Amino acid sequence: MPNLKVLLSREQIQKRVAEIGAEISAEFQGQPVVLIGVLKGAAIFLSDLARNIALDATFDFIAVSSYGSEKQTSGEVKLNKDVDNSMEGKNVILVEDILDTGLTMSYLMKVFGAHHPKALKIAALLDKTERRKMPIRADYVGFEIPDKFVVGYGMDAAERYRNLPDICVVEE
Ligand code: XMP
Ligand code: MG
């Protein structure tokens, strides 16, 4: 049984998510936005973020897989579930749990860039900047964190701990 140590408390998370929601609301004032959540890790972040966005917002979800283990992204990304509608002319915000090497987001920026959206932004709750391999940055970042494996608030270790309200570091 691993030991879980709180890295970011539920209070810290809620405060920061509200700030990001306000930032997005101000930036897209008067315009509709589409939030695209990357399953499954971003589901909880998306649902909290959406309630802090005072705009006409719709949701969609995608699923991706990367070859290799969860902890070590190998480089190849595959789209397992696409969006239901074209994003042409829309204000699209890709919502992700963690920006790590950046491979997943580089791939998704290419995929969604091809839809010719009006705007294409990235909201990442966490950013492990040390691990970046691709030149990509999020437009909205919750917290920069060190290179530690984290769980909770949607994030998992072998599908467990997604329901924890705090973000925790797993200590083996
Ligand atoms: P890349 O490297 O493509 O990877 O930016 C992003 C994806 O890797 C997963 N990831 C984690 N998942 N705890 C998790 O539960 C972590 O500490 C962690 N680090 C990376 C995550 O799914 C993200 O979408
Ligand atoms: Mg993920």
TrEMBL record:
Gene Ontology cellular component annotations, sorted alphabetically: cytosol
Domain of life: Bacteria
Protein family: Belongs to the purine/pyrimidine phosphoribosyltransferase family.
Keyword Isomerase: no
Annotated Phosphoribosyltransferase domain residues: 10-157
One Gene Ontology term of the molecular function aspect: magnesium ion binding
Catalytic activities: IMP + diphosphate = hypoxanthine + 5-phospho-alpha-D-ribose 1-diphosphate; GMP + diphosphate = guanine + 5-phospho-alpha-D-ribose 1-diphosphate
Biological processes per GO annotation: GMP salvage; guanine salvage; hypoxanthine metabolic process; IMP salvage; purine ribonucleoside salvage
Keyword Transmembrane helix: no
Pathway involvement of the protein, from the record: Purine metabolism; IMP biosynthesis via salvage pathway; IMP from hypoxanthine: step 1/1
Keywords recorded for this protein, A-Z: Cytoplasm, Glycosyltransferase, Magnesium, Metal-binding, Nucleotide-binding, Purine salvage, Transferase
Cofactor entry: Mg(2+)
Main location: cytoplasm
Coiled-coil residue spans: none
Protein name, per record: Hypoxanthine phosphoribosyltransferase
EC number(s) recorded for this UniProt protein: 2.4.2.8
UniProt-annotated location(s): Cytoplasm
